[in-house]
Amino acid sequence: LCCQELEKLGLRDDVDLYVYEVPVEYQTVQRLIPALWKKHSPQLVVHVGVSGMATTVTLEKCGHNVGYKGLDNCRFCPGSQCCVEGGPECIDSIIDMDTVCKRVSALGLDVTVTISKDAGRYLCDFTYYTSLYQSRGRSAFVHVPPLGKPYTAEQLGRALQAIIEEMLDVLEHSEDKINCQHEH
């Protein structure tokens, strides 16, 4: 629902926003994430997941490769208990989440934003790692609390809009720096 709010709000004019619902199924994630990257070649993919344990909007710094023991909605669990066999244990987002968190907090929205290094070793973490692996780090994951605990869909939609715009800004500035280094 907060993603529907985000769709209504949109992002700045030069950004095309595509919203997809990803099923809570390991095998679908492994097929769908690469297909979406191939279809859109996006500048950034931001995944949003609901966490019953979250009380804040949480920016996840990294995805984990191993430790997936929970059954998905199809009662399936990867035999290897990992996302990518032989892949690194952890992949960090190239987005500096500390900077994004500080910037969004400074906007004075009525939503608290925090940072985490553990997306939970279930489908959220699995999706994030798969996307980070596919994109060489050009992904982000935001955990939101269940609706009404304590935020409305509107509050979460506005927070996501601000977070994604800051993420794009941070990404564009880090790329400017990289491009400058290449030119010298």
From TrEMBL:
It is an enzyme of class 3 (hydrolase). It comes from Crotophaga sulcirostris (Groove-billed ani). Gene3D superfamilies: Peptidase C15, pyroglutamyl peptidase I-like. The keyword Endoplasmic reticulum does not apply. It catalyses: Release of an N-terminal pyroglutamyl group from a polypeptide, the second amino acid generally not being Pro. GO terms for biological process: proteolysis. It holds the Pfam family Peptidase_C15. Keywords: Cytoplasm, Hydrolase, Protease, Thiol protease. GO terms for molecular function: pyroglutamyl-peptidase activity. It is found in: Cytoplasm. Its main location: cytoplasm. The active site is at E60, C124. Monomer. Belongs to the peptidase C15 family. Its EC number is 3.4.19.3. This is Pyroglutamyl-peptidase I. GO terms for cellular component: cytosol. Removes 5-oxoproline from various penultimate amino acid residues except L-proline.
